[in-house]
TrEMBL record:
It comes from Sphingobium amiense. GO terms for cellular component: cytosol. This is phosphoglucomutase (alpha-D-glucose-1,6-bisphosphate-dependent). Its cofactor is Mg(2+). Gene3D superfamilies: Alpha-D-Glucose-1,6-Bisphosphate, subunit A, domain 3 (3.40.120.10), Alpha-D-phosphohexomutase, C-terminal domain (3.30.310.50).
Length: 543
C-alpha cells in the first residue's frame, strides 16, 4: 500500500457554515472536492500523529463513499486509528460520545442534518474536536483559509474497508475499528435517567410515538424505547435509516413531521410524541394535544432536570442561543444560576460546558443538550422529558400549564423565508443594519422600540469575539424581533425571523400563538420590508 500525493486546486466555496460544510451531493461529487476539504481539516490540526479519529454519519447518500475516502486519507496523514460506526452509522450525539470516551483526537461527522438526502439533495462534513464538540470558529476559519490555498492531498492506495463487520482491520500502519454505533450511547442514556421509572410508567399503560423520519435515530430509538424501556414494537416510526430518508425532509417541525403532529392531535393520540432529525441531534416534543415549542422545552427541562438521576445535583448554568426565547432565563433566575446568551450554532456552547459554567444548553431550532456530550441530543431530550413525566406523574399539557403559571409564557414563533436570491437577502440585511441607529424611540405595530443592534458575543472563557450574529429589535415591553440569515442551507438564502412576546403569570396564557404575535409579525414586515426585498408575501415555514 503506497501513499499517493495527489495534485489539486482550491475550491472557492469550502467555508464551513453554522454546522460544518454543507453542499449539494453533486458538489461533493466533483473530483477532489471531498478530499480537498478533508485535507484542509487535517492541515489545520497539530499533533494527531498516531492518534484516533472517529468517523461516521447519518447514513445519507454518499455516506459510505466519503467514509472510505476519510479512512484512506487518515492513514496517509498519519492517524494511528480510525473508529467508525458499523454500516458507517453514527448519530451526531453518539459520535460526540465516542470521541470523548475513546480519547480521540477528533472526529469527522458526515451529515447535512435536517436537510434532505439523496443524489439531488444535500451532504455535509463537520469536524469535531477532542472534547466531542463542533470545532470552534478559530478552527473552522483555519480550515477555510487552508482550503483556499491547498495544492495537494495525501491518500493511501488501498481497497475499501468492510464497514459492516464489527472488528479491527489494518490499513498500512493504521488500525480501523468498526464499532457498534448504539450500545455505548444507550448505556450513557441509561446512566443519566431513571430507566426503571420510565419502564414502569410504560408498563402501566403510558403510550408514546417516536418518529425517526427514516434517518439515523432508528436503531438508537428502537434499542432504547422498545428494547430497554419496553415500549411495544411500532412505537418507533420510520425506524430504518434510508439514504434518501424515504424522500422525506428529516426536519422535525410542524411542517415536515406533520404525520406525527396529526397523530398527536387525534382523539386517540398517544400520551407523548417526539421526532428527531437526520443526524439525531434535534428533538420535537408534542404531548397529547399539546405542542411544546423548543424554547419552552428548554425551559421545562432546565426547571425539572434535578428529577433525573444524572442531574440530581442541580445545574451549574443554562445557555441558550440568542434567538431562543427568554423562557429559560426566568428559570435560571429562579434557580439562581447564570444564563449565557450565545450566537446560533452548538459550537458556541462547548467552551461553557468544558469550563463547567453551564449544564444544559438549547436552541429554538429544536436542539437541546447537556454536558453529557458536546452536541445537542434529540433522544436525550426525549428521555429527560419521559423521566420528568414519570417523576411528576403529570402529562405534558399539565406540565406546560404549571410552568407558565409559575414563570409566565414567552409566545414564540420562527418564520423562515426560504430560497431567496442571495443578493436580495443580503440587501435586506444591509438595509436593516443601516437603520439600526434610527430605530430606538420610534413606534411601529409592535410598540415602541427600546433598542436595536447587531448581536455580538464575547466568549467568557477565551475572550474570542463573534460579530454580526443577527439583528435584534427589542421593544419596551420586552418583546423582540430578530433577523438573521441561515448558515446551513445549500440553495439561495434563507431569512429567519424570530418573534417573541412575553406575558406574565397573571396575563392571558391561553392565546393562540399567531394571535399573540400578530402585531410583532406586522412590525417585522414594516421594519425589514420582507415582501419588498423577497417578493414573498408569507413565510415558507413557520415553526
Ligand atoms: C440552524 C439552526 C441552528 C442549528 C443549526 C445546526 O442553523 O438555526 O440553531 O444549530 O441549524 O443544526 P442556521 O444557520 O440554518 O439557522 V443541525 O440539526 O443542522 O446540526
Ligand atoms: Co441535526
Amino acid at each position: 500500500m503506497t501513499i499517493q500525493t495527489v495534485a489539486t486546486r482550491p475550491f472557492p466555496d469550502q467555508k464551513p457554515g453554522t454546522s460544518g460544510l454543507r453542499k449539494k451531493v453533486r458538489v461533493f461529487q466533483q473530483p477532489h472536492y471531498a478530499e480537498n476539504f478533508v485535507q484542509s481539516v487535517f492541515d489545520s490540526l497539530d499533533g494527531f500523529a498516531g492518534q484516533t479519529l472517529v468517523v461516521g454519519g447519518d447514513g445519507r447518500y454518499l455516506n459510505r463513499e466519503v467514509i472510505q475516502i476519510v479512512i484512506r486519507m487518515a492513514a496517509a496523514n498519519g492517524f494511528g486509528r480510525v473508529l467508525v460506526g458499523q454500516g458507517g452509522i453514527l448519530s451526531t450525539p453518539a459520535a460526540s460520545h465516542l470521541i470523548r470516551r475513546s480519547g480521540a483526537f477528533g472526529g469527522l461527522i458526515l451529515s447535512a442534518s435536517h436537510n434532505p438526502g439523496g443524489p439531488d439533495e444535500d451532504f455535509g462534513i463537520k469536524y469535531n474536536i477532542g472534547n466531542g464538540g463542533p470545532a470552534p470558529e478559530k478552527v473552522t476559519d483555519a480550515i477555510h483559509a487552508r482550503s483556499l490555498s491547498i495544492d495537494s492531498y495525501r491518500i493511501l492506495d488501498a481497497a475499501d474497508v468492510d464497514l459492516d463487520a464489527i472488528g479491527v482491520t489494518h490499513l498500512g500502519d493504521m488500525a480501523v475499528e468498526v464499532v457498534d454505533p448504539v450500545a455505548a450511547y444507550a448505556d450513557l442514556m441509561e446512566s443519566l435517567f431513571d430507566f426503571a421509572a420510565i419502564r414502569a410508567m410504560i408498563a402501566g399503560g403510558f403510550t408514546l410515538a417516536f418518529d425517526s423520519m427514516s434517518a439515523v435515530t432508528g436503531p438508537y430509538a428502537t434499542e432504547i424505547f422498545e428494547r430497554r424501556l419496553g415500549a411495544p414494537a411500532g412505537t418507533v416510526m420510520n425506524g430504518t435509516p434510508l439514504p434518501d430518508f424515504g424522500h422525506h425532509h428529516p426536519d422535525p417541525n410542524l411542517v415536515h413531521a406533520k404525520v406525527l403532529y396529526d397523530r398527536m392531535m387525534a382523539a386517540d393520540a398517544p400520551d407523548f410524541g417526539a421526532a428527531s432529525d437526520g443526524d439525531g441531534d434535534r428533538n420535537l416534543i408534542i404531548g397529547r394535544h399539546c405542542y411544546v415549542t423548543p424554547s419552552d422545552s428548554l425551559a421545562v427541562l432546565a426547571a425539572n432536570a434535578h428529577l433525573a438521576p444524572g442531574y440530581a445535583a442541580g445545574l451549574k448554568g443554562i445557555a441558550r442561543s440568542m434567538p431562543t426565547s427568554g423562557a429559560a432565563d426566568r428559570v435560571a433566575e429562579k434557580l439562581g444560576v447564570p444564563l449565557y446568551e450565545t450566537p446560533t450554532g452548538w459550537k458556541f456552547f462547548g467552551n461553557l460546558l468544558d469550563a463547567g459554567m453551564a449544564t444544559i444548553c438549547g436552541e429554538e431550532s429544536a436542539g437541546t443538550g447537556s454536558d453529557h456530550v458536546r452536541e445537542k441530543d434529540g433522544i436525550w431530550a426525549v428521555l429527560l422529558w419521559l423521566n420528568i413525566i414519570a417523576a411528576r406523574k403529570q402529562g405534558v399539557a399539565d406540565i406546560m400549564a404549571g410552568h407558565w403559571a409559575t414563570y409566565g409564557r414567552n409566545y414564540y414563533a420562527r418564520h423562515d423565508y426560504e430560497a431567496i436570491a442571495k443578493d436580495r437577502a443580503d440587501a435586506l440585511m444591509a438595509a436593516l443594519r443601516g437603520k439600526l441607529g434610527t430605530l430606538p424611540g420610534t413606534a411601529n405595530s409592535g410598540g415602541t422600540v427600546q433598542s436595536a443592534d447587531d448581536f455580538a458575543y464575547t466568549d467568557p472563557t477565551d475572550g474570542s469575539v463573534s460579530s454580526h450574529q443577527g439583528v435584534r429589535i427589542l421593544f419596551v415591553d420586552g418583546s423582540r424581533v430578530v433577523f438573521r440569515l441561515s448558515g446551513t442551507g445549500t440553495e439561495g438564502a434563507t431569512l429567519r425571523v424570530y418573534i417573541e412576546r412575553y406575558v406574565g403569570p397573571e396575563g392571558d396564557l391561553a392565546m393562540a400563538t399567531g394571535d399573540a404575535l400578530a402585531p410583532l409579525i406586522a412590525a417585522a414586515q414594516e421594519v425589514a420590508d420582507i415582501a419588498g426585498f423577497t417578493g414573498m408575501d408569507r413565510p415558507s415555514v413557520i415553526t
